[in-house]
């Protein structure tokens, strides 16, 4: 079984394309997009409830229902909705009316907002129905259980699911996102930021072999070489390589999702909704051996050098420095040290640096170089590790290297260079490690500043 999870999609044209991304020859689960206009109208209803403005509620609910019918009819291209579509939508709105008419102390915001996901799922379900697809609509509140730690209870959820889908024969099952039930049997909605983690939990519950995230965000920035971009079709990395990319600062996928998928052997695919054939990253346990997969650059970090004044024993010096960093919750990307000197690539505001400097100056001298570049070379090169440092130093012989380390993890080597040399160093490393003609053959990506885009 495969699971397909979609981000927020707004236009009718984009929604019409969803069935083309779900193969109809095998059982699959579709986690539909959440429609922002539904959320906005439900928030208006929530505000009226909060303000005890009961008279507005019927009008607001009717406006949402009218918009829903308009959207579904436009989606199918029909002048009016089918009786089946009208019936299932009317049933949901009857539930919504019943919900807002409860005693006020029984109305929970999260349960109200769960109607966003329910209605979004219902719209996709009705659309698949009009296409004559064998489709079912699942209710996550019947089997997705939240434990006492506010996380999904996998064992209890799996037990509930087994009794629920014994006779499930639908080709496509629509599973509204983020809906759960807590220990009090109340329906709740997980935060939007946990959408990806929720989908990963569903993949484990349904024993899926693959989970695909369709994102509307661009995974590659504009490239002057269109031929290069057109060759980027499927880029495969291992779980460990993905962790290295995340550790390097690129927000590829939440770490918790990666860990969960790795534990259950689920392949993850991150695909651009608008260009899936050319922009897809696959994360799998299958090793591709000695290949450089990415060169990731973290920009706008600071290079901090702390030199002991000799007043402390070496172990005291190291302990004191780490204590100061801990007091200020300093994000440390790389660190190297001797008995009397510590160098760090960190993220610091000017104010925090001056406060740290005041404390460190009691036992050390401190210098800082602003806006450095931390470059991570990521891939499978265990057999080459003893030569990797030599290769990097040789390649960057004309560029001053502030630090070099492969202590961050087993899949990366990291170097620190000044800001003005960052792009040049990245290009040199990319060209050489990926091969002289890498742009035409390997199209391994370079991850750029801000970690919201990737160029090749």
UniProtKB/TrEMBL annotation:
UniProt GO BP: homoserine biosynthetic process; lysine biosynthetic process via diaminopimelate
Molecular function GO labels: aspartate kinase activity
Reactions catalysed: L-aspartate + ATP = 4-phospho-L-aspartate + ADP
Domain of life where this protein originates: Bacteria
Keyword match Iron: no
Keywords: Kinase, Transferase
Leader sequence segment: none
SUPFAM superfamilies reported for this sequence: ACT-like, Carbamate kinase-like
Keyword Transferase on entry: yes
One GO cellular component, as annotated: cytosol
Family to which this protein belongs: Belongs to the aspartokinase family.
PANTHER family reported for this sequence: ASPARTATE KINASE, ASPARTOKINASE
Stated name of the protein: Aspartate kinase
Organism: Paraprevotella clara YIT 11840
């Amino acid at each position: 079984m495969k699971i397909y999870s979609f981000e927020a999609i707004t236009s009718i044209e984009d929604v019409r394309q969803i069935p083309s991304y779900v193969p109809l020859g095998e059982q699959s689960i579709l986690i539909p997009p959440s429609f922002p206009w539904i959320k906005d109208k439900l928030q208006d209803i929530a505000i009226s409830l909060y303000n005890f403005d009961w008279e507005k509620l019927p009008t607001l609910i009717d406006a949402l229902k009218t918009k829903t019918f308009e959207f579904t009819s436009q989606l199918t291209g029909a002048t009016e909705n089918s009786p089946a579509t009208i019936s299932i939508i009317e049933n949901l709105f009857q539930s919504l009316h019943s919900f807002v008419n409860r005693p006020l102390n029984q109305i929970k915001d999260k349960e109200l907002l769960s109607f966003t996901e329910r209605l979004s799922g219902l719209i996709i379900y009705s659309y698949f129905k009009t296409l004559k697809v064998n489709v079912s609509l699942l209710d996550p509140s019947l089997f997705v259980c939240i434990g006492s730690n506010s996380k999904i209870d996998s064992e209890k959820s799996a037990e509930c699911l087994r009794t629920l889908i014994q006779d499930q024969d639908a080709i496509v099952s629509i599973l509204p996102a983020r809906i759960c039930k807590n220990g009090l049997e109340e329906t709740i909605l997980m935060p939007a930021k946990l959408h990806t983690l929720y989908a990963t939990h569903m993949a484990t519950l349904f024993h899926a072999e693959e989970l695909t995230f369709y994102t509307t965000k661009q995974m590659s920035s504009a490239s002057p070489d269109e031929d290069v971009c057109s060759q980027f079709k499927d880029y495969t990395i291992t779980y460990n390589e993905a962790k290295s990319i995340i550790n390097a600062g690129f927000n590829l996928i939440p770490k918790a999702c990666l860990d969960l998928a790795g534990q259950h052997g689920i392949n993850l695919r991150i695909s651009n909704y608008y260009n899936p054939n050319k922009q897809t990253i696959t994360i799998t346990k299958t090793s591709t051996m000695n290949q450089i997969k990415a060169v990731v650059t973290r920009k706008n970090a600071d290079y901090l050098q702390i030199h002991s004044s000799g007043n402390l024993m070496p172990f005291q010096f190291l302990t004191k420095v780490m204590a100061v960093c801990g007091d200020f919750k300093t994000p440390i990307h790389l660190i190297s040290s001797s008995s009397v000197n510590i160098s760090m690539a960190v993220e610091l505001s000017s104010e925090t640096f001056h406060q740290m400097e005041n404390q460190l100056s009691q036992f050390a001298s401190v210098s800082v170089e602003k806006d450095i570049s931390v470059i991570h070379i990521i891939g499978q090169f265990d057999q080459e590790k003893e030569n990797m440092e030599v290769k990097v130093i040789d390649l960057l012989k004309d560029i001053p290297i502030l630090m070099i380390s492969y202590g961050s993890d087993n899949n990366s080597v990291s170097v620190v260079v000044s800001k003005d040399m960052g792009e040049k160093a990245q290009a040199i490393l990319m060209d050489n490690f990926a091969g002289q003609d890498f742009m035409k053959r390997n199209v391994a990506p370079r991850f750029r500043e801000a970690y919201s885009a990737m160029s090749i």
